[in-house]
Design brief:
By secondary structure, the protein is an alpha/beta fold. It is about 35% helix and about 20% strand.
């Protein structure tokens, strides 16, 4: 496994992180709790020590299963969870980063994860109704109380981050980044580097599109949120499949799949600390591990620019 330092902290996290959204059992088709647990145990065996979840994933279910899967190892890894997306009994969701909600959310996450302190507690999305000052002061209070170790942000602009940094130490920023989504390269990545904030990226495989498993005849289940993703629609889907074929061609030179090349392309950017990849089974873990400990040639990186 490859490891990289998390921001200005002494923590070193695996460059492949275990994404736990699917573990919640909502929005990704059929998911088995027992398979999720086996996947986590396999990830531990391969040295993955960074596990990213959120309280809203499965409305708490992801955190519960992750806590159960990690067992006694939960104190030996870096658990990163998120707050800020609230829900009600009818599964209606909304954004809430108020101090009142934070205090409730952190206690609930601690209980579900079965830990005394959350290593990395992240704001899931900015909340336009709540001043960032209120959110960050509440998080600092959580730190002082020993409920969280470090603060991270997710889906924040540079402007959001700059304001947040006035009230709290921010060690990480989680953002979408892949060979298909590169908008953070020009302004956001340089800002993070300047401020020594780690970049944690998600959607590295574009929700599985870059895995090479899908074609024009692919059909998802009725509850699969990819049915509403424009990357899987019309001409855009056709163009994306052409890119997948390019990844496949390059991968053959290394004995790798399109997915391995897509993940390696992200990891070959030294400014990326960790690529968070959703994994539902132990076989998916074993497959994603093949993206580690090799590099694309300069020529191949140039081809993919």
């Amino acid at each position: 496994m490859e490891y990289q330092k998390l921001g200005t902290t002494p923590l070193k996290i695996s460059r492949i992180g275990f994404g736990c959204w699917a573990m919640g059992g909502h929005g990704w088709g059929k998911v088995s709790d027992s398979e999720s647990i086996n996947a986590v145990k396999t990830a531990l065996d391969y040295g993955i020590n960074f596990y990213d979840t959120a309280d809203v994933y499965g409305f708490g279910h992801s955190e519960e299963i992750l806590g159960k899967a990690l067992g006694s190892k939960r104190h030996e890894v870096i658990i990163a969870t998120k707050f800020g997306v609230s829900w009600d009994e009818s599964a209606n969701i909304g954004r809430d980063c108020s101090a009142l909600y934070i205090m409730k959310a952190v206690e609930a996450s601690l209980k579900r994860l079965n830990v005394d302190c959350i290593p990395l507690y992240q704001v899931h999305w900015p909340d336009s109704k709540t001043p960032l000052e209120e959110t960050m002061i509440a998080l600092q209070k959580c730190k002082e109380q020993g409920k969280i170790k470090y603060v991270g942000c997710s889906n924040f602009s540079n402007k959001n981050l700059l304001e947040a940094m006035a009230y709290a130490d921010i060690v990480s920023s989680q953002l979408p980044y892949s060979i298909l989504r590169r908008e953070i390269e020009d302004e956001i990545i340089p800002f993070l580097v300047e401020n020594k904030i780690s970049l944690l990226v998600y959607d590295t495989l574009a929700r599985g599109l870059l895995s090479g498993k899908y074609g024009l005849d692919t059909k998802f289940g009725a509850d699969d949120s990819r049915n509403r993703d424009t990357n899987f629609m019309g001409q855009q889907f056709k163009d994306n499949l052409l890119l997948v074929e390019k990844l496949r061609k390059i991968g053959k030179k290394y004995g790798k799949s399109p997915a391995h090349v897509a993940v390696r392309w992200v990891l070959d950017n030294p400014l990326v600390t960790c690529a968070i990849i959703g994994m539902k089974t132990d076989q998916q873990v074993k497959d994603n591990i093949r993206s580690i400990n090799w590099k694309l040639s300069k020529d191949d990186l140039q081809t993919l620019l």
